[in-house]
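SECTION: protein entry
WANTED: fold as tokens:
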Amino acid sequence: MDNRKKVLIIEDDKDIALLERDYLEISGYSAAIALTGGEAKKALAERCDLVLLDIMLPGADGLELLKLIRNERHLDIPVIIVSAKKADADKILGLGLGADDYLVKPFSPSELVARVKAHISRYERLTAKEGGRGADIREIIEVRDLRIDVAARQVFVRGKEAILTNKEFDLLIFLARNPNRVFRKDDIFDKVWGMDAIGDTATITVHVKKLREKIEDNPSEPKLIETVWGAGYRFKM
């Protein structure tokens, strides 16, 4: 039985897919490759621990596959977009649809492996922690009209559930557990994404923006997640 963590590579460029697979397997992972949207849909029926997703695919839009993963299959495993599209608008769209990270081509294979390792490790720690929490211990964070049920990974605004992506929830929990403290983007990336100084901190800006849209009364004048200009972000308790 293969107990290695499995990565699904959804990539139409076979050379890139094989390169990713080789580096992942050298690093102790197993990897499956899907070169088309149709192959990807079939592969998603099998177990995997992380998905590397290219946006531009023959036979399917990578972003539509991301919606499939999150909304129809209800998979909460990490998804890293690997794309030649480097505009902020593309990053915002991908991250807003539920991707956990965004890596721009060309990339360093070692950085790709580092991100895969960090996301899988963090996901395992998170699920293990929640699985081990006692039934009589339930962490609830309440601020103004916001209610966070940490164990259930649910967020309610004025009694109505707000649907957050994995990383949006992780970011919110990190800030809410450390109220009134200012965190630089690099610090947040390190603590929430689990990678020190190898990521694009624009990812933080995108996630804060999406999070504000879901939990703030007026996202343009946030009362919960404040921007401290020149310093970072602060959760106002």
About this structure: The longest strand covers residues 6-10. DSSP finds eight helices and 14 strands in the chain. Residues 4 and 62 are 26 Å apart (CA to CA).
